[in-house]
Amino acid sequence: MTASLSVAEILDLPALVPLWPTVGQALQQAESTTYQLAKEGRLPFEVIRLGRRRYVRTVDLHRFLGLLPGNSEATAGATAAASSEPTNQTP
Length: 91
What we know:
CATH topology of one domain: Arc Repressor Mutant, subunit A
Strand content: 5-15%
Number of strands: 3
């Protein structure tokens, strides 16, 4: 199993990052799983191919992980909406 990246490490990434190991570790996925998801188009962001290498825009990774600076209002709104939904508990 590979070590995952901390939030601080993810926020310090350059504009374009390699699919493996950076994106895979940020998503806590194995190398083979990361490449398979990219091949099937099942990652939640665009994978950019340059030669034989694959990259992801860091801003897309940040957006997916909810780490965009100044995005706290959107996150707070989503959290508030989720907490106000009725539950299936019986009285």
